[in-house]
Amino acid sequence: MPPPRLRSLPASLPRLGQVVAPHTTGAGPGFARNDGRSSTARGYGADWRRVRAGVLAEEPLCRLCHAAGRVAAATEVDHIEPFHGLADPLRLAPTNLRPLCTPCHRSRTGRQARGLGE
Q1: What range does the domain containing 88 cover?
Q2: Quick check: is 105 in a domain?
Q3: Domain for residue 23, yes or no?
Q4: What pTM value is reported for the model?
């Protein structure tokens, strides 16, 4: 026989909002994803997706892992130097892009957000 179902939570349990922090990106203010701008407005529209696909097709392994003697599939494309606005030539310049795995990209982006550079 299955246990009886609760009709409501006991009053002694704290409300969910009191124990769970709101979701954040963990990155600095320059990397906020909740500023209300679309990905296209941030510089990641159709032209970016086309260039990104080309970078991943040309170099399918994470460049940082490869340099460290590891093999990992690249799933992200990183801007080596940050770009500033849609008209910035660094935004789509192949020499400013490198394929990275998700852990390497998150680590690099976190360091960049904290002002620690490479």
Answers
A1: 42-118
A2: yes
A3: no
A4: 0.66
100 - beta bridge partners? Answer: 76
**CA dist., res. 76 & res. 68, Å (int):** 18
Q: Is 90 exposed, middle or buried (0-12, 13-18, 19+ CB in 10 A)?
A: middle
Does residue 37 fall inside a structural domain? no
- Look up residue 99 and give its two tokens: 């394929």
Amino acid at the residue 108:
R
Q: Is residue 104 part of a domain?
A: yes
Give 77-113 pLDDT, tens digit per residue: 999 998 888 999 999 999 999 999 999 999 888 887 7
